[in-house]
Amino acid sequence: FLPQVDSANAGRVLASDAAVFLKKSGLTDLVLGKIWDLADTDGKGILNKQEFFVALRLVACAQNGLDVSLNSLNLPVPPPRFTDTSSPLLLSGTASSDLPWAVKLEDKVKYDSIFDSLNPVNGLLSGDKVKPVLLNSKLPVDILGRVWELSDIDRDGMLDRDEFAVAMFLVYCALEKEPVPMSLPAALVPPSKRKPLSVPGAMPLIPSSTSTKESHQSLPPVGILAAKTPLTQ
């Protein structure tokens, strides 16, 4: 990756060059800002070769749902994925759907059987039906609230089969003491929920007014979980 951003071959990367390159990871500006802050240890706005590798490693962590922190650097993760924004692939919208889903097939079968056992209506589970399963994990309510928030991708207050698999995946990660990410990594978005991109690199970071309105109608994450159920820590 380094030759792509270090065109002068000076062994260092300027913030402006790195920003353009790191954007291709599909991560949000917020996450990329955090990655830059951790990698640019002396705050000079320039990364040397070692710091650039730290940034790449943190991108890989974020794409695989791990916490963006220096503690994650030693965890085994696949290499980071970048999409060339000038490639015709992205124009046709197939690039994001090429990303393999982080939920493994054998796990999906397991999650599907739990989903079916909860009596979904029209292929959807309400927050009330999902809540006992989440609470059963004995995870803190704020973590479970974030799991719900991340897995209810279309913000309709219900989980379909794929969204439920995302919720279960995040719960099992949290039980393995892996931090739940603040935003859903691209690799965790179910293929059925991936939207084709009409403009290269145009990932809307701010929800439109309509989706904001809908999100208010969906169940508030902590409200679902905190409802008078005493949690034994």
TrEMBL record:
Under the heading InterPro entries, the entry gives: EF-hand-dom_pair, EF_Hand_1_Ca_BS, EF_hand_dom, EH_dom
SUPFAM superfamilies tied to this protein:
EF-hand (SSF47473)
The Gene Ontology biological process annotation of the record reads:
endocytosis; endosomal transport
Alphabetically ordered keywords of this record: Calcium, Metal-binding
Record-level Gene Ontology MF annotations: cadherin binding; calcium ion binding
Query: Which superkingdom, per the lineage?
Result: Eukaryota
A single GO cellular-component term on record: clathrin coat of coated pit
Residues of the EF-hand domain: 27-62, 139-174
> EH domain location, by residue?
1-78, 107-195
* Entry protein name: EPS15 factor
Provide the species name: Mohoua ochrocephala
